[in-house]
Design brief:
With about 425 residues, this protein is α/β, with parallel strands linked by helices. About 40% of the residues lie in helices and about 10% in strands. It has a 6-stranded parallel β-sheet with strand order 3-2-1-4-5-6, with helices on both faces. Helix 7 packs across helix 9, helix 7 crosses helix 10 (about 280-290) and helix 11 packs across helix 12. The longest helix is centred in the middle third of the chain and has 31 residues, at about 200-230. The radius of gyration is 24 Å and the shape is elongated.
């Protein structure tokens, strides 16, 4: 088996997860960064990361990292780390297509003694039951005889400049005890927060998928409480601030649950559960609540518009923020789109803006969404402040009022950024989750 000093590393997939990982390794050792997106490779070679996860300076510091879209450039490597997306399809079932294709690519260059480490979030068993057979079929080699596997779940938090890949403790695992130790040693070269060696690949896979499932359920509880408290005419944030004075109260807040992790990963776990004959109850209940929050925001806003005498058939609604979270250009699975689609279903004109999202990417992923330039000055009948970008946090009641028209405009403060009393004094009918 290869030793730590013999490792010739490749990272497959250079998105929000793969690039920060490749850059950290590139500061320590030679790394081949592979991605099928040639446009992405050209941009990285020019020294810029459009996801904003890795700065231009950090790319320059990663002197051992070289980028390629050519499979042949992987032939000289012997350890491959796979960091491709694991989405769900329109039926909310796991879509392993990117993972299968990445495995096929590696299978073409796989050699005796090589190790393939997966970081993509999956259900327990996916590495050995779904990915390894692809590697065997394409390469003609035998698992745990000719080649080996590892799993080390990613823990990237997009847009977070404090919790980086090297400062978050890393779970590692391998298909044999020797491989597990080598995989752990490899990651210890860059993870200053330390590592946790799981007893098996399946344990590591399960640990990752329940991290986001737990968070999803906690937010679902807050969302359900928000809907309840609205009917009781109680401000949810005031309740949470009061409850938060107890030392063991968990500080979760209601909100839209999108992105490529929390809003997706629980479906991987429930799909696996159903395949082994268990129908999950709590997990799916949480998913239903969170998946309906976009519709709830839109419909609650429409009700308030009608009560204020606004003709919704002639109204225009403005939406501030389109990415799935603040200060981040990632639009994957953004639940803000659910708000917009619900307004559109009522025949309401919607104009949206976002200082971070790529207009071309938005037009491709979400056709029919009208994008206005930031702070375009156009006035609307109602405003949805959907994402807590820093640019929106600095707005005050007067600034928001200038974006609105009519004597009784409506504002939905999804992220509770503003003082409701100040908004009311400005003549704005405001509500928040």
């Amino acid at each position: 088996m290869i030793t730590l000093k013999d490792i010739r590393l490749a990272v497959i997939g250079l998105g929000y997860v793969g690039l920060p990982l490749a850059a950290e390794f590139g500061k320590k050792r030679p790394v081949v960064g592979f991605d099928i997106n040639a446009k992405r490779i050209h941009a990285l070679r020019d020294g810029h990361d459009s996801t904003l996860e890795v700065s231009d300076e950090e790319l320059r510091e990663a002197k051992g990292l070289r980028f390629t879209a050519e499979v042949a450039d992987l032939a000289g490597c012997n350890v491959y780390i796979v960091t491709v997306p694991t989405p769900i399809d329109e039926h909310k079932r796991p879509d392993l297509t990117p993972l299968v294709k990445a495995s096929e690519t590696i299978g073409k260059v796989l050699k005796k003694g090589d190790i393939v480490i997966y970081e993509s979030t999956v259900y327990p068993g996916a590495t050995e039951e779904d990915c390894v057979p692809v590697l065997e079929r394409v390469s003609g080699l035998r698992f745990n005889e000719d080649f080996y596997a590892g799993y080390s779940p990613e823990r990237i938090n997009p847009g977070d400049k404090e919790h980086r890949v090297s400062t978050i403790k890393k779970v590692t695992s391998g298909s044999t005890a020797e491989v597990a130790e080598l995989v752990d040693s490899l990651y210890r070269q860059i993870i200053v927060a330390g590592t946790h060696k799981a007893p098996s690949i399946r344990v590591a896979e399960a640990a990752k998928v329940i991290e986001n499932t737990q968070r999803d359920l906690n937010i679902a509880l807050m969302n359900e409480l928000s809907v309840l408290f609205a009917r009781l005419d109680i401000d949810t944030l005031a309740v949470l601030e009061a409850a938060g004075t107890k030392w063991n109260f968990l500080p979760f807040r209601p909100g839209l649950v999108g992105g490529h992790c929390i809003g997706v990963d629980p479906y991987y776990l429930t799909d696996k559960a159903e395949k082994v004959g268990y129908i999950p109850q709590v997990i799916l209940a949480g998913r239903r609540i969170n998946d309906n929050m976009g519709r709830y925001v839109a419909r609650t806003t429409i009700k308030k518009m009608v009560r204020n005498g606004i003709d919704v058939t002639r109204a225009t609604v403005g939406v501030l923020g389109l990415t799935f979270k603040e200060n981040c250009p990632d639009i994957r699975n953004s639940k803000v789109i659910d708000i917009i689609r619900e307004f559109q279903d009522f025949g309401i004109h919607v104009v949206a803006e976002d200082p971070y999202a790529d207009p071309e990417e938005l037009a491709y992923e979400y056709p029919g969404v009208e994008i206005a330039p930031g702070d375009s000055g156009s006035s609307v009948d109602a405003l949805i402040v959907a994402v807590a970008h820093d640019e929106y946090k600095t707005l005050d009641a007067d600034g928001l009022k200038r974006r609105l028209k009519g004597s009784k405009p409506v504002l939905a403060d999804v992220k509770s950024l503003f003082d409701p009393d100040q908004l009311a004094q400005a003549g704005i009918t405001a509500w928040r989750l």
